[in-house]
Amino acid sequence: MFKRLLIGAIVLMVLGFGGFLAFAWRPEIAASQPPAPSSFDPALVARGEILAGAGYCSECHTPKGGRPYSGSRPMVTDFGTIYATNITPDPETGIGKWSEEAFRRALWTGVRRDGAHLLPAFPFDHLTKLSTEDVAALYAYFMTREPVHSVTPENTIPFPLNIRLFQAGWKLLFFTPGRFEPRADKSAEWNRGAYLAEGISHCGACHTPRNLLGAEKASATYGGAFIDNWVAPPLDKSNPSPVPWSRDELYTYLRTGISRYHGSASGPMAPVVHAGLNVVSDADVRAIATYFADVDESAPRAAEEKAAIDHALAADKRGVGPDNDPAAKLYTAACASCHYNGGEINVLRPDLALNSAVNLEDPTNLIRIILFGIDAKEGAPDIVMPAFAHGFSDEDVAQIAAYLRATRTDHPPWQGLVEKVAAIRAQGKTEE
Ligand code: HEC
Ligand code: HEC
Ligand code: HEC
Predict the structure, then answer these.
(1) Domains of the chain: which residue ranges?
(2) Which is nearest to 216 in space by CA: 246, 173, 183?
(3) Which class is 305-427 in CATH?
(4) What is the dihedral of CA 334, 337, 339, 345, to 10 degrees?
(5) H or E stretch including 49?
(6) pLDDT, tens digit (0-9, with 9 covering 90-100), for 203-262
(7) Relative to the alpha carbon of 241, which ligand is closest?
(8) What's the gap in Å between 88 CA and the centre of ligand 1?
């Protein structure tokens, strides 16, 4: 009896494994000759160029200081280092032998031309929403780039996670392939914005928290997350900005990199604005703003705006002038020469009471900005937030952060600030 049970169990396991193999296996798509660049319609190529910008393909696929899209750029993840591949049309080391069908399958389902599963570090979970026409435009763009011969290094994901077949299990659990489906109860502009945000521009890849297996939590879309040593704030109504992000402010922020009622795009958000959305049309940036102004429910919360601004204008007066509090003195000497509002909100000197960095539950962004500054390439053009890492001790930075938290917000104080500053100083400025 026991033997029979055992045999039964083994048979089931073999069947199960066989079933998994059958389920996980993908065929190779035959190699094709690289199409002649002249065979593509220039209008399609131009459209592909905009989509490549909107999808920040170069942020991952162009190595620092290297040739466009030639790959080998490392992404350090909790599971090991993953290298973005060479997506130039080089036939040997790039995607020169990929037919449009193979390229489409990669974007829509995360499968390589040879049938191997791709890792979700490649945002196919968003690119799956792209229309056939947009994929064709991207294909035309990449097939007309200069081919670069460059071999991508092996990923350093440990065994058994490096077995690509197992990715099929991950996909089964967390991946919903399929094109974007417009919502009939929303405007055409909203749907356009949602298509861009959820698909090509994959805003959720940074702004949605992930589970232990690295998949975005479907129950917490845009709920805010840690990414590359920064906090990507929530983009839903739990966003901590005192002034709700309206459509106009979202548009201005995404278009110019700075919003008068919020501040500037720095850290990993800087390339989104300046090396991504900058090639996207005004109408499309407005559509993205329309979508997120609905996601964060800013219109019904518009009344919060005036109170928040009045509060900021009043709080500012406290930081300036004679004061015996050492933290206030430090703030006045180091920061208030630039961050004063003088009775009105000025876009070129972000009001710290209104800034998310001061209002977030986690002080990381504020500490990063004080230590490493925001250089001219990031943030708004031509203005600079100086870096204080050299002049200030960990205690100084912690004191200023605690002071701003206490005087600019109604939130509870941050804990363990000095240790946090030391840890972030040790990480260094991680982005370019
Ligand atoms: C967040 C980083 C990131 C972004 C953004 C990104 N990719 Fe990738 N991509 C990767 C990584 C990492 C891989 C390799 C994954 C692996 O090894 O399984 C990859 C793989 C690919 C592949 C498979 C190529 C091959 O040789 O296996 C294609 C095609 C591709 N990306 C195209 C694009 C396009 C087009 C865009 C822009 C719309 C884009 N990627 C944006 C990180 C990224
Ligand atoms: C590569 C990761 C990444 C991607 C992709 C990304 N963001 Fe961000 N975003 C961040 C980080 C990190 C911050 C915080 C930086 C700062 O405050 O300067 C941020 C900040 C923001 C803010 C300001 C929030 C606040 O309260 O201050 C908005 C709005 C925003 N992002 C919208 C978007 C939209 C819309 C998209 C897609 C078009 C997007 N982000 C894509 C990482 C990302
Ligand atoms: C020389 C002028 C100057 C000084 C001094 C200065 N800042 Fe700034 N700060 C700026 C400018 C300009 C920006 C907007 C940067 C940009 O967009 O490039 C900024 C941005 C910021 C931001 C946030 C932005 C965001 O929107 O994400 C914070 C937080 C901040 N500063 C805090 C401080 C603190 C704290 C001090 C003192 C330790 C300080 N600053 C000193 C000029 C200054």
Answers:
(1) 24-174, 188-301, 305-427
(2) 173
(3) mainly alpha
(4) 170
(5) helix 42-54
(6) 999 999 999 999 999 999 999 999 999 999 999 999 999 999 999 999 999 999 999 999
(7) 2
(8) 11
